Amino acid sequence: MVNPTSAELAEFFGIMIGDGGINNEWQVNITLNTDADAEYILYVRALMKKLFDVYPSIRPRRTRGATIVSLASTTVVDFLVHKGLPRGNKLLQGLRIPQWILSQKTYKIACVRGLVDTDGCLVLHRHRIGGKIYNNLYLSFSSASPELLTQTTQVFLNLGLRPHLAGDQREINLYRLEDVQKYLHIVGTSNERIRRVYQKWRRARAAEWA
């Protein structure tokens, strides 16, 4: 197992907080979209193998369009719980970023990358003004945990970003293009789904000025 306070582990914690769960004494599950996250599924499996030296299984759930990356190990579960991941219902137990991650900038960045790669997205918004089509890009992250949204907002602010909390208090958005690009430069992404949207926006923007 790697250093228990590595940036890679912090990214894995972000993934787990977003789309993961510890359902019992011995199993870690991460549920991802089979089609949209096809490449990311392989990335997550490789990350888990690197962190814990245990090869996870991949189990498609065809009826729900989802794939579960699953790792069975009581040692790993005990370690993750000790480091701050809840066992069972995450929301009922208070979903939050553990303090050991918040204590170091590189860990916070890596954790937020995992959070946004799972529970976030880039949105390409097209609209027409005066007969011309414009393409805008913004980043969105959602969670049902008020504490997690507060923590993530603070990380964004610390990075010099300007997040906006949606009216329903369940979503953080970066609406300014310079903030989206700064996020991608500083935090980055491990998910091809997000890279594809950014590349699509770049092509659309280039076409606007052609």
What would a concise description of this structure say?
This protein has 210 residues and is of the alpha+beta class. It has helices at 7-19, 38-52, 74-82, 99-102, 105-119, 146-158, 177-186, 192-208, and strands at residues 20-22, 27-33, 57-61, 66-72, 120-129, 132-142, 164-165, 171-174.
Would you write up a description of this structure?
This protein is 46% helix and 23% strand. The protein is α+β, with helices and mostly antiparallel strands and 210 residues long. It has two domains: 97 residues, Homing endonucleases (Endonuclease I-creI), CATH 3.10.28.10; 92 residues, Endonuclease I-creI (Roll). Strands 1-2-4-3 form a four-stranded antiparallel beta sheet. A four-stranded antiparallel beta sheet has the order 5-6-8-7.
Could you give the order of strands across the largest sheet?
1-2-4-3
Enumerate how many helices there are, as a single number. 8
Using the coordinates shown, work out and report the CATH topology of the largest domain.
Answer: Endonuclease I-creI
The CATH superfamily of the largest domain turns out to be: Homing endonucleases
Q: Which runs of at least 5 residues are low in confidence (pLDDT < 50)? A: none
